[in-house]
Amino acid sequence: MSEPAPTPSDDALRAWFLGPRAENAELLERLLVEALRDHVFWRRNHHPEDGFTIHELDKRREAYDAAVATLTQELMGLLAELKRGVPFFSGRYKGHMAFEQTIASQVGYFAAMLYNPNNVAIEASPVTTRLELEVGRQLARMIGYDPASAWGHLTSGGTVANFEALWVARNVIYFPLAARGAADELGVRLEVTGPAGHRAPLASLDLPELLNIPAAPALDLWDELWQAAPRERVHDALLRHSLQALGYQDYALRLSEAFGDPLPPSVVLVAASAHYSWEKIVRALGIGSNQLVFVPLDDRYRLDPDALWERVVDLTHRRVPILACVSVCGTTEESAVDRLDLVQEVRSRAETELGVTFHLHSDACYGGYAAALTWDAEGRRRSAEELRAEFATGAEPAGPHDVRTREPSGAWPSEGWVRSMEALAETDSVTIDPHKLGYIPYPAGAIVFRDRRMRELVAIDPPYLLPTQGLGSSEDLFLGRFVFEGSKPGAAAASVWLSHKVLPLDERGYGRLIGRTVVGARRLYRALGEADLEPFRLVRLPEPDINIVCFILTHPSLGSLAEVNALNEGVYARMSLSEPGAQPDYIITRTRFQTPMYDGAVGPVLEALGTGTLEGWRSGGKAGLVVLRSTVMDPFMGFAGSGPDHTAGFVEALRAAACEALAALSGP
Ligand SMILES: *Cc1c(COP(=O)(O)O)cnc(C)c1O
Question: For ligand 1, is residue 445 a contact (CB within 6 Å)?
Fold first, then answer.
């Protein structure tokens, strides 16, 4: 692989982080002190006529001294304890999706934290609520939504963001049904556009038709209903018919009374690689985990669009409504990027051929920031060819032990990768975690809806936070009205905002940063392919779509999958902080591929391992397949010859851990 030459923006990259040996300590210190001093000036100048509350003479008293001594002592204790934390900043940490944070985000957080704004409502965060909405627009632009009609905000993380996506999706999908009941009651006639583009009177639609109105016409219907009668009456009528108010039990009873048709439970389609939070979410929303339908993966760990189409056809024949389809951009285990463009095609085809639609969501909690790669500084899309020329990762030569996939390995990124990123613009909602590939401190997740009207379907007005009447957009700045969470840190918004200012969401900033991590991941991937680990054999999973490298170690003496799993568990135990007191030189993590989720993907891996068949793996149940996993979020891995050679060190650590693990397996 020919290394791309460092460019000026690679030099900028060296100013973005504190650095593995705190090389930029002076910079960070200067900015933190600046933020603190500036805050102090603010306090000093706030009503100076008030005089002082704490006097210099108070500071000479014994109890004051004692309190300061306690504080100092306890802080020393805390600082010492904290050193047992995880060295995310080090090139030796190749575990979970965590690295250090940008200096911008650290300083932004600290500066705003001194003011402690609460982004639940503008009156508690006059500055940071605006910053949060600006971040929402920045992310919307990166996704490819029109920032003027989209709406995004921050959450405490991806789980809550995904929860909100499905909460909103459910209310939008069920809304035409509630609107039908409310319109009948109010005696108003409305029309609505169906999935194939035909307009029809709302009153003429049957139950399946009412449940298959695409989001845009459903939201038009929302607007028209509110205009058709006095607001109070619409409000009350909707409450009598909406799932939100009735809850699932009453709702199902009403439907079978009204339509003589007990509705089969609606399902949520998710890629089989989906994060486990989806199971929590369907349980919490009362949808039920039985209604979570996994769509099989292909052998690159991406949702299989053909299998999706088959599921949609089958569900339609069984009259099962589909609430949503969740596709993943950057899977948690493998960083695989679903072919979202093909998933979107499946939905279009379902609309025209089957009269069926659903909310399309991209869970881009991990991979969303990679969309920054597809934009240049002028806001134009970059082609796959341009990106390949810039990052020059080259095609991966196939090794003798490699997993054979249908799509051969090639230079990164593929045309399909770029089309998938562009297809984010076609979804209804996207979740992105700034606290993952945004390199922002926790807590910072985000959700963006393509159509800002969607938030109205979950809006609630608490009496003590009602917006002032007649102030125009003030309603817009009262986030608590539209989001699941209440109090939330304005500091997180300032943190993300400042980081986006320093690292723009295009080729100059996050695109450059993430591109470098892809180069680093590929260097590690190649090094693992070339490593001579005799007598061990290392089987790499297919090359990553972003920056997570997965592999499995085996040894000729291991005949069964259970033994191979045990070897890899042993390697993990020696290269992680899972055991108390462990001090591994390099840190990795592991995952477990399980049936039936990974049935579509795991066949070629078992073949390359030469241990067992797909049937054998399936009958192994929960034991699954243990896979070692390394996330490369360290951008400095992407430069050859600068800093320590963590690839070679990593391979050596792997060999040592494998030898020990094997010895432990065979016993004394
Ligand atoms: C991490 C992750 C989540 C959950 O995000 P949290 O911030 O940990 O709640 C959801 N989906 C994907 C794909 C993820 O990688």
Answer: yes
